[in-house]
Every structure is written in structure tokens, then in C-alpha cells.
Amino acid sequence: MDIRPPALRFPEPVRADLDAHRPGLADETERMMATHVRPCVAITAQRVSATPLRRNPLARLFGARGAQPVLGVTQSKFGGTPYCETEEDWSAHGFLGQIDLAEATSVLPPGAPRLTGLLRLDRGRDFPAILRVRWFPEPSAARAMAVTTTRCGKWETKLEFKRGWTIPEGNALESIWTHRTPWHEYDEFFPPGYNADGFDEFHRMLGHPSSGLDEHYGFTPHEGYSHDIAAYECLLRLTYDNAAGFSWGTNWVYLLVDREDLARGDLSRVVVTGANY
Q1: N or C terminus: fewer CB in 10 A for the chain?
Q2: Where are the domains of the chain?
């Protein structure tokens, strides 16, 4: 399996503009940008049954029943049965999904973060504090407790993980993009194979932070942690999911982790914030 990133080549209008400014600038800029490449995990959902978990009122009136969860309690998924080790208060939350981090990060190349444990996401009523995040360092089906709770998505879905590639975007990109034409003025800017979640609508784990974080809101760090969002890496960016059946309008939800915590593989103090794209 080829673990190298794809060839980094800007769209032809960008290259032509660069070379018009100075011959050879396009190649020079591509070499510079290649030093900023980071891998990411592209997360997509696939339904596991032809019947939703939750029926609408009219369907229930005519006797239609929802599907029963089929995925294991420790599997990566949206919907279905959540993993839980102790009694928890579910009165203000419903189960959104969970990610087997070892499975997810196994698609990354050598040198990229390797994470372990199970990351569980429960959806609340408010935005952006819409998620309650639980990290279980050593999940075990034998320790799992039965849970009665609502499910936020309409469908149970298994999660699939593929490797993706990112370059900086937003303010981080502007700091290294020195050409006279701002990068955001091009109709197409990102090289093919990079930052593809902006077009293919998948959830992104790790990689460069999305530009939405430049205008985030609701960021409240844990006690003793930095109030500068630049001190954090983006662990996960969640958009809507048609397969699972959940959305939050034009908003995206971001899970941030302190850079030093991420290096240790400690996800016990994840911070949730939001942005309007």
C-alpha cells in the first residue's frame, strides 16, 4: 500500500498566475507547500440495515417498527448501542456515535498519531456545547453496561476509515501564502487529493485544522489549559451525516485536544467548540 501523499500540484489557473508573476514560482510554491502536508482520517458512515432505528409517528401509527441495533457495543458507529462502563445521567443527552481510535488511526502512515481507546459522543440540546465526550482508554465488551437512552441519528451505521491528506487552510494558509492574489479568490485552489472533505462531505480526524476554526465560538478550555486555540489540535470535525440521519444546520462541530495531551495519547480533556461552517 502506497503511504505517500499524492503529487501536490495546484490547479492550472493557480499555477499560471504564479508563473506569470515569476517563472518557476509555481513549482517553488508547490515544493514549499509539500513541506506542510499532514495526513488525516476520512470518516464515512454506511447503513447496516434497510430499516431505520426510529420510525416517524405516521409509520408507527400503521404498525411499522424500527430496526434493532446489530453492531457490537465496542464497534465504531453512529447510532445503535453506546458503550458505557458506569451509571451515567442520560436525561439531557442522546447517543450520537463512537469511534474505535486504534481502528481509525491505523490508516495513517508511520509517524502520524496513533490513538487508542474508544471515543463516545453524546448529543445535548445546546450548541456548540452540543456534545458530551467520553474517552474510554481500555474498553471491554465484558465491562459494558446496558444503557437506555435516545439515539440522535435515525439510522445505525458502521464507520469506515480511509487516509486523506491536508494542507493548511484559512488563517494558517494566509500566513504562508505570500503571492499577491489571495488564495481564497481562486475558483479552485486546493490541489487534487488535498482537503477533500470540503467537497466530499466526510468527517475529518486529525490533519490540519479546518478554516472554520478561525471564527469559532463556544470555546471553553478546561481549568489550567490555554485559552489560545492555537495550542490545540483538531481531533475531530463533524459535519452533517445523511446516512446516519443527523445534522445541525450549517454548523460544524469541532473536538479539540491540547497538543501535549495528543502527543501522550491522552484524550481525557477534549474541548468541544463550533463554527458556522
Answers
A1: N
A2: 39-166+203-275
